Amino acid sequence: MKKFTLIVGILFISGCTIIPETNKNIATYNFAAGTDPSVRQTGKDGRKILVATVSAPLWLDTRSIHYRLNYYNRSQSYTYANSRWSSPPAFLLTQQIKNKIAGTTRHLVVEDSGVAIADNELHIELEEFSQIFDTLNDSHVIIRFRTSLVSNTHRLIAQKTFSARQKAPTADAAGAVEAFSIASNELVDALVEWMQTELKTI
Fold it and tell me: N or C: at which end does the chain have fewer Cβ atoms within 10 angstroms?
């Protein structure tokens, strides 16, 4: 009976049903950006920053929204059947970081190193981006990535791991997306502040 309850719980969370459905609409989600990309800060004292595309392990390099069940098997990852990201999380984070730097600092974001030589580069490795269920109705999301700030000669200037945990308002994909939006904005703010501080020491 306990095993049956756990299976039903997994199907309920994932959006799956025992009876196949046809023409099921798939919900597509993006981050709620904390910075208006149309706003740009400019200034002669800014540096040219190349933000490399965020890298991610193979299991995260998809549009799937991942979750785990701590109360069942915390080492196994599941994905929602009828919910997707508009692009892989690594790509969404890359765009969010670029918009934040361009919109709130005096630095210039270099899109192509072949067009303009960057003064510094940001390299980010995404390590965790999942919704975690502690119970059937109680969940939170975790985002963790490692950032390296390097010079245009590829000398490592500084490195730091950023992580955030945010409670999901509802136990479903929509709740996860809302929590991911809050957590990603928090982490990107912290990342840009850290970058600003490190650049002042150069």
Answer: N
The distance from CA 7 to its chain's CA centroid, rounded to whole angstroms, is 29
pLDDT tens digits for range 8-23:
455 445 444 333 333 4
Closest CA to 169 of 130, 133, 132, 139: 139
List, in sequence order, every residue forming a beta bridge with 50; answer none if it has no partner. Answer: 110, 121
**CATH number of 120's domain:** 3.40.50.10610
**CA dihedral sign of residues 90, 88, 97, 184:** negative
**DSSP per-residue codes, 76-130:** EEEEEEEEEESS-HHHHHHHHHHHHHHHHSS-EEES-TTTS--SEEEEEEEEEEE
How many domains would you assign to the chain?
1
Tens-place pLDDT, residues 91-114: 999 999 999 999 999 999 998 766
Q: DSSP of 118-173, one letter per residue?
A: -SEEEEEEEEEEEEEEEETTEEEEEEEEEEEEEETT--EEEEEEEEEEEE-SSSSH
- Distance separating alpha carbons of residues 136 and 6, to the nearest angstrom: 9
pTM above 0.70, yes or no: yes
Range of the structural domain that residue 135 is part of: 2-200
